[in-house]
Design a protein that fits this description.
The protein is built from eight helices and five strands, in the order βααβααβααβαβα. With 160 residues, the chain is of the alpha/beta class. It has a five-stranded parallel β-sheet.
Length: 160
């Protein structure tokens, strides 16, 4: 089984200042996916968006994604190009034509196509466009806010 992370989730996942429920949810998600041996696909367009924001940590982030066996960086290859063409052909022939911009084709549609081409069942994303495009490709799309809060994070602390 495979799932995909888009840039919005990757950026939060690698944000060292992220705290609270959001951090707990993302850490728990990765731990659960690793425990189930689910491949976490990192589409290269999403990786690009993460690296743009990474600054000096760029090499460190890339190393972490490359070394951990749970993560698989996936390219926009010929299989993904074919999937993207099919998705866009359908979108362009429908009423959604006005909502397509060149940047959306370059990133969001490619992320969805890569996930679909690599048999992902789910995309984790906080991007509304990814959610719409993912649904067109029959992929479940889950927002970070909709992830379950692990029991350990739900327990309050008493200040004594």
């Amino acid at each position: 089984m495979a799932v995909a992370f888009d840039a919005s989730v990757l950026i939060d996942l690698f944000n060292p200042r992220l705290k609270g429920d959001r951090r707990a949810k993302l850490d728990h998600l990765v731990a659960e996916l690793q425990k189930k041996r689910t491949r976490i696909l990192i589409p290269t367009p999403a990786l690009t968006e993460l690296m743009i924001r990474a600054g000096k940590a760029r090499e460190e982030y890339h190393q972490k994604l490359s070394v951990k066996s749970a993560f698989q960086i996936t390219s926009f290859d010929s299989r993904a190009a074919m999937e993207c063409a099919l998705l866009l052909e359908e979108a362009l022939s429908s009423k959604g034509k006005q909502q397509l911009s060149k940047s959306k084709i370059k990133f969001d549609w490619q992320i969805v196509a890569i996930a679909a081409a690599h048999n992902a069942t789910t995309i984790y994303s906080d991007d509304g466009d990814i959610a719409r495009y993912g649904k067109r490709a029959s992929l479940a799309v889950i927002k970070t806010d909709d992830l379950p809060l692990p029991a350990s994070a739900a327990q309050g602390k008493l200040s004594l």
